[in-house]
Amino acid sequence: MSAIDLQRAGQPLLVETFAEWREAARELLVHDVPPALVTWSTPSAGGDLFSAAPPAAGQTHNPVEMPPAASDKPRHAPPSIPRSLMDMLQSAACCRVPDRWAFLYRVIWRWQQGQHDVQSPADEDGARLHAMVKAVRREEHDMHAYIRFRERPLEAGPPRFVAWYEPQHDVLPQVAEHFVSRMGKVSWMIATPEASVLWDGQTLHNTGPLVKNSEDLEDTGEALWLTYYRSVFNPARLNQSVMQQHIPSHRWKNLPEGKIVTHMISEAARGARKVGQYEAVGQRKGTTIPIAPEDAQPERQQPSKLDECRRCELWQFATQGVPGEGPKKARIMFVGEQPGDQEDLAGQPFVGPAGKLLDQVCEKAGVDRDSIYVTNAVKHFKWEPKGKRRIHKTPAQKEIEACHYWLEKELAHVQPDVIVALGATALKSVMRTANVTLKNSIGHPVFHEGRWVVTTYHPSYVLRVPSEEAKREAFRTMVESLKLAHDLLNRQPEEPPASSLDS
Ligand code: URA
């Protein structure tokens, strides 16, 4: 029966997969059926029914009176939904919340009604959608990171590797794809309480649950894994709170090393930490700089993709990482602070009001903005809620430092001759110290790490400053700074630049 017929008959739409939901939603949308009239059901919910208003206990669902538009003739053309929204809906569909299908339908219905802010985190539904997507992405990431395959004896036949995991969301299919590309032709199986996937070296097979718990899986590979884990465990690097943040305790129970980690932590606290470091340092050649073991830094992740970055906490609250943009070999690089609300949604730097002001500065200085590489010191939007809005929050020094990793990559690729630091955060990032001030740096370019650094105001300052005169003055300073940056392109470090900003 079609979605419309089922609804007419008062029967819920039984949906298990995103593809099924999409087909039903499409049919409902072309017949103009509002979310309040649709009742969704999911097999895994044990027959629970969800709609905008679920029936009270003991009630059955009455046949639904469809709006006149839901006659047999479609009322609308099939909806055209942007790829970005469809991707979000598909991710959110993996989030284990009981009303997921009803919620997704409300979102898509509102979009179709022209309420495009439903995709924005400032909207109530949009915020929930973003939170669901984030939860699912986090679960995918965790599953990539914390799955442990155990090897089975060759004579036991395939699969050669088995893993048990208890995901909190329905991410097994996409995680399985990830391991297909990582594990080559060897056969493996991932078992979860709800489903299992088996890779035979060529094809993925999806099945229902095959085992009840991790004990059911072959344990042959475990001893080997524990030996390996012990050998790579470096007590000198141990930072227990970071480790616990990275591997929440509820994950440890399914990690083979979970059984020995507590023991190793207490060993480390009792002195193995010192010993571990002395040994490692002692084996190195050349000068050694003594560092107290307790000051040793935890090793940060070195991701290759911005959206996989977990070097600080900001990724959790942003829609996406915003990389720099501009010609590959630009000679001038603008470094701003961090993406704003609009940049966070668009995934591009300086596309909001601050970007418009930057355009005006470039025009006035006679420098083609398209010739400049534009980026930020921090690549994720840091914000706090204020009513429905997301208000910018200044990044902390540790976040600036964590993100310097990306700025370094951009500098290495673009190799600009001059950096224009827009505001204090950019200045601290570029100079790699918190001991610099905007006031002392504006009008005083420095030659730093092989290139000129010119400091100026951040465009948001010009937009915010209340007095008209101060606004004009700050704008003028920005224009002069950019002209100076342009002049420096052809100047050697020995030649002191003439600055017209000193007066
Ligand atoms: N402010 C910044 O510093 N960067 C942007 O990309 C936008 C606003």
TrEMBL record:
InterPro entries found in the cross-reference section: DNA_repair_put, DUF4130, UDG_Type-4/5, Ura-DNA_glyco_family4, Uracil-DNA_glycosylase-like, Uracil-DNA_glycosylase-like_sf
Keyword Plastid assigned: no
Signal peptide: none
Statement: the UniProt record of this protein carries the keyword Glycoprotein: no
Pfam families listed in its UniProt record: DUF4130, UDG
Source taxon at top rank: Bacteria
Keywords: 4Fe-4S, DNA damage, DNA repair, Hydrolase, Iron, Iron-sulfur, Metal-binding
Membrane spanning residue stretches: none
Annotated ranges, domain Uracil-DNA glycosylase-like: 323-476
Chain intervals for the UniProt region annotation (Disordered): 51-79
UniProt-listed Gene3D superfamilies: Uracil-DNA glycosylase-like domain
Family: Belongs to the uracil-DNA glycosylase (UDG) superfamily. Type 4 (UDGa) family.
Protein name in the entry: Type-4 uracil-DNA glycosylase
